[in-house]
């Protein structure tokens, strides 16, 4: 039988089979096919194993003997191209017996492929044999053997042996492919099992942390306890910032400097698209991994949580932190709702109290707010003008409230603070042990301290403070509030160099608040109008002399010294004033009217009120 293999070929095939069955690694099998095939076929000086890439539509060299592999691996043969491509398309073993036939067939190579084939071997093949590798009725590749010796030729026995080897190669490649797919499936299962295990760990840890956090919330522990718990369980520095970047809570194993805190805040509150922002930061000479997570969601973002750890946090801990952020956000929303409700109730109470309609229900509400109706009270109003954006306004108002609590409420703990629109209203309560005048002076000093600290922040010109007078009993505090409002009106209406005023300080200036400008101008005109008319066409010596005379409490000697004039000259000017005004400066009633008219003229003239 012509297709029967000789004893030697059978021995060679058994050797090939043993080699191919010695491994299930596909790359090892591919290399083994070429090396064994070239070794058992005497005429073969070299060869290439091509496999067909279905996605690319090319035959690609996977293993080679006798050729430069670095060059040959770049060759891409289409079906029908050159000797290998013809065997692939024909699906049968082809032999090319002489150089002319080889040259004629390789002429179908593309210029690039021909160049690479010629440069990959020292001399062109003299003859060649190509056998397709068939698997399940499809050609999956080609074994091409080349002879570079003119006197060496491939025989029919070589064809039969190569066919048998290609069949063995197909079986070996199928087994290796199945093994690779099995290994891939095993790896996928292992990966899936690892993912499920990690997810279970993540879920379990997150549930444990979430449960503990829920217990803290239900027991009313608050944000401080939550942040301390996170600090302990993760062994990380934990910081909470509000929506404008102010530090709300802090739990650390080591102190953090102000500069480091500023750097952390800048990174933590920086807008990011991702749900979490991870980076490496330098904190007081040490490197930390910083994770910043948002609290709440846009557009109602409540703030950020920053966590500093020595080692990078894994996905389990990050997931647990995200759960923690949800709990913290809910706690912040709850705290915000409580605060808003308290402010609303306090605001309603203040409105009722200031209206003067104090009934038993309002007294009961006062007791609920821990205000003793029988103590002394003083109303203070802080007026805030804001020329900044909403976020800065929120930050500024929070700073003002912190300062109010530190300077006033900590010293007078039985008091009440209400923030309403552009005002902060403080109802200050103190005992009857000392005089109300003493407390008023003390509170006025604290108000000046408050404004000095505000001025250091650069907001001095935007904040005005007015105090009413101290009243005995809560039912009279509405009068104190009215006085504080009049003080603010005075600061607003008259351009005096003051930002803090007590109603007690106003004295005669209260007339400015209790009468219209028209009435005041009439009084001034009736009292000192002739003098103003007289001075309007002169140097103003008489008016300035009168002002100094009043300022020096009618002390002629001091007035003359300040004006650098002789006392006789002063007496002459005073006499002239009496003549112009038709009044006697020694008459106490006339002098009082004169004094009031001059003071009112000063204030109105300074603020541009003219008839």
TrEMBL record:
Residues in GAF domain copies: 25-183
Domain of life: Bacteria
InterPro entries according to UniProt: CdaR-like_regulators (IPR051448), CdaR_GGDEF (IPR041522), GAF (IPR003018), GAF-like_dom_sf (IPR029016), PucR_C-HTH_dom (IPR025736), PucR_C-HTH_sf (IPR042070)
Pfam families on file: GAF_2, GGDEF_2, HTH_30
The family this protein is said to belong to: Belongs to the CdaR family.
Full protein name: Helix-turn-helix domain-containing protein
Source species: Brevibacillus composti
Organism ancestry: Bacteria, Bacillati, Bacillota, Bacilli, Bacillales
